[in-house]
Amino acid sequence: DQQVKQNSPSLSVQEGRISILNCDYTNSMFDYFLWYKKYPAEGPTFLISISSIKDKNEDGRFTVFLNKSAKHLSLHIVPSQPGDSAVYFCAANSHAGGTSYGKLTFGQGTILTVHP
Amino acid sequence: DGGITQSPKYLFRKEGQNVTLSCEQNLNHDAMYWYRQDPGQGLRLIYYSQIVNDFQKGDIAEGYSVSREKKESFPLTVTSAQKNPTAFYLCASSIWYSGANVLTFGAGSRLTVL
Questions:
Q1: Residue A89: which of B40, B43, B102 has the nearest Cβ?
Q2: Does residue B100 sit at the A interface (CB-CB below 8 Å)?
Q3: How far is residue B105's CA from residue B30's CA, in Å, rounded to a whole number?
Q4: Helix, strand, or coil here: A82?
Q5: Least confident piece of the model among A7-11, A37-41, A79-83
Q6: Averaged pLDDT, groups of 10, chain B, 114 residues long
């Protein structure tokens, strides 16, 4: 049962344009969402997070939008740079029942390629 | 320089052998995790530990074992019972940030079964 889905395996964007990465989830108990970036043969690095009480969180070139009714979140990168080329994972976490051990459920990842 | 160190980076194993992947952190984090990455499947949780001398099974614990004798260390043993062990293994530890439990990952260990 894939509770977090990234339906686009890959995305190709021109440098300077906007990159939009999408993520859908099915578990309504998820209340925190995170985006990670991963280069080949390296561990993922944390990019940005959003709580379910918000619908937008911005950090520099990165903005995450959350649509709770649609169970959908997206990561916008503006402007895109060649160094942004990596695999992007969305992840979700639930604090229901007091669980706080960070059992993140990850999507399959989207490979972003930014062309110069 | 704080972080998570995983070793070895590459490991080859013959079928029927147990192997142990090392994970050490100097971030003073209480919680540690092991994830497995396979192509097209994202990251799946194998085991996690919230505190020394305690650990819990994740979603795909069969064929794996762990120990947590020290706060800094969380080694993972891939046993011969693991049917498909070839994968990229990621260790992580976590801290709370703006209400979210944010994981910091090591660089990973790639295990190949010959």
A1: B43
A2: yes
A3: 14
A4: helix
A5: A37-41
A6: 89 91 94 90 90 92 97 96 92 79 91 90
Task: Kindly determine whether residue B102 and residue A46, on different chains, have CB atoms separated by under 8 Å.
Answer: yes
B90 at interface of A, judged by CB pairs closer than 8 A: yes
Q: How many CB pairs under 8 A join A and B?
A: 74
CA pair distance A109, B40, nearest whole angstrom: 7
User: Looking at the partner chain, which of A41, A103, A107 has a beta carbon nearest the beta carbon of B108?
Assistant: A41
Six-digit token pair at A87? 């695999």
Residue A111, pLDDT score = 96
A-chain residues near B4 (CB < 8 A): 43
- Closest listed residue to residue B95, CA positions, set A68, A49, A65, A79: A49
List chain B residues with CB under 8 Å of A108.
40-42
**Cβ neighbours around B14 below 10 Å, total:** 9
The residue behind tokens 């994830």 is B35
Q: Rounded to 5 degrees, what are φ and ψ at A84? A: -80, -10
Peptide bond into B8 cis (omega under 30): yes
Q: Which single residue is written with the structure tokens 């990561």? A: A75
Inter-residue contact B11 to B111 (CB < 8 Å)? yes
